Amino acid sequence: MSTTLSPSLQRFIEGMPKIELHLHIEGTLEPELMFALAQRNQVALPYASVEALRAAYAFDSLQSFLDLYYAGAAVLLTEQDFYDMTAAYIARARADKVCRSEIFFDPQTHTERGVPIATVFAGIARALREAREQHGFGSAMIMSFLRHLPEEDAFATLEAALPLREQYRDLWTGIGLDSAERGNPPEKFARVFARCKELDFRLVAHAGEEGPAQYVRDALDLLQVERIDHGVRSEEDPALMARLAQHAIPLTVCPLSNLKLCVVADMRQHNLARLLEAGLAVTVNSDDPAYFGGYMNANFLAVAEALTLKREQIVTLARNAIAASFVDAEERGKLSAELDAYCLAQTA
Ligand code: ADE
Ligand code: ZN
User: Domains in the chain, please, with CATH?
Assistant: First the structure.
């Protein structure tokens, strides 16, 4: 991408070890792979070519994106499909120096088409375990409920998934909440999140992307989440901002997503720098990189350029992600040491 960043800051960003905390695996399905899987599975796509599909990626809201995203996921049928998609993402992430990724997946998108939930888990987990063994790539799986569907459906998904818990204990540690935010407040999922908390899952939820700051409060108070996915509209509520800063509640911000979904009109108007300035535990993530024009490095470069971020701010964003990640103390120490060593080597 063209950039007016200094070449040295660009190189620094590109080489910096990173952790990704907000990534929908279904949002990594690149048009080329979507077409290949459509052909392999004899699924018809309503687009003549990869180019025609890419040209359709012009969104004016979260819903306009979700319509395409769920339609695209229809090509995913077999364990091998989920494996191929996940392996392709890991290759892209590793090229951007991502060393760990905590990945959302939406079983309801697949089970409603007749794909067994065990198939979804198996394909994603096989790619993640392979990457851990071959490259030391760390990961977690965060099973997310679709908030446009009723809470009973989320309960049914949880019940269907629980028999798999033992088999995927090394990966499946989290529960999330995504899809259409407006009109689907956190309160709608309070009971199922309470059950997930009893079961000792780590809890996160999308809030304050298109929805109001009140949804961020409700995600914290009613769902008891540890991290807020997006959360950029928190800025509309100064008391909430103070609370997020005081308790160091991480926000997994996704700059290119916010731009593509018209949450911000221009990257220079993004509030990431102001959130950082206010002392919030902001992180940078790619959300649905196949749809929003870039993976982790593209997101870092876009905000660094538009908001003229300094090297220290870039490092703070990376440190915040280490602090916010669902790793144990030993692994957190290793990730911090790796980032420290990188910074030292770059300033030497
Ligand atoms: N599902 C995939 N990407 C999403 C986003 N940015 N917001 C809500 N749900 C999503
Ligand atoms: Zn998201």
Answer: 7-347 (3.20.20.140)
